[in-house]
């Protein structure tokens, strides 16, 4: 059974703390999984934060502990949203984690803080590895047949007097040749270079609340009670 290649990116809020200076330190972990049996090529990933907080947050750290992913040192989640330093190639059966720490200052209560991530790439389609060939064969051979004709008598008369001489002459052999040609032709079709697109996305939304019940939003938020220092869902 051929299992279709899939790629996924899981976005999880890993925790938060207040630094005592009116700023919130938020930790995310992105889990990237690729299950294909052929390498995934031209893989790119982005992480975008809500425009409501443009200029009020900064990326403190971005790490990939297992070193499987080449990260973009210029990633800031606003102007440069690329997580990777260029397009990557992921080997078959790859799982890796990216840890991102965000410092958010001057945040507004009851305003959602959204982090949207996505990943895309391509891989060779399962059917593209097949190829076909055909062979036709014709045989070439030569057959030689030799036939000896029957003797031919010759009579000679001599005068005066009557003298008759009979001589038998045998003609030379007759050779007949028959030729059959054999030709072998092999036709091979190369594998079809067909690509399969890969894509996935995920989103984490939380609301900074100071007391009171938060309003519901389309994306169910993770509620951070900045007064009590606990998170919930």
TrEMBL record:
Top-level lineage group: Bacteria
Stretch list, region Disordered: 124-198, 212-233
Chain intervals with Low complexity compositional bias: 126-192
Protein name (Swiss-Prot/TrEMBL): Uncharacterized protein
The species this protein was found in: Candidatus Dojkabacteria bacterium
């Amino acid at each position: 059974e051929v299992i279709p290649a899939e790629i996924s990116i899981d976005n999880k809020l890993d925790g938060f703390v207040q630094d005592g200076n009116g700023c919130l330190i938020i930790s995310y972990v992105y889990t990237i999984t690729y299950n294909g049996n052929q390498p995934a090529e031209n893989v790119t990933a982005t992480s975008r934060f809500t425009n409501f907080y443009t200029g009020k947050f900064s990326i403190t750290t971005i790490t990939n502990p297992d070193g499987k992913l080449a990260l973009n040192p210029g990633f800031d989640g606003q102007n440069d949203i690329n997580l990777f330093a260029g397009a990557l190639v992921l080997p078959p059966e790859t799982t890796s984690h990216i840890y991102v720490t965000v410092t958010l200052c001057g945040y507004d209560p009851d305003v959602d803080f959204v982090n949207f991530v996505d990943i895309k790439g391509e891989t060779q389609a399962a059917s593209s590895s097949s190829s076909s060939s055909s062979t036709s064969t014709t045989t070439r051979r030569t057959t030689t047949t030799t036939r000896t004709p029957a003797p031919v008598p010759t009579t000679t008369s001599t005068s005066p007097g009557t003298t008759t001489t009979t001589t038998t002459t045998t003609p030379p052999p007759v050779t007949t040749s028959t030729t059959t040609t054999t030709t072998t032709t092999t036709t091979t079709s190369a594998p079809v270079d067909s690509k399969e697109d890969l894509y996935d996305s995920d989103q984490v939304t939380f609301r900074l609340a100071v007391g009171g019940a938060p309003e519901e939003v389309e994306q169910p938020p993770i509620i951070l009670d900045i007064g009590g220092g606990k998170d919930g869902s």
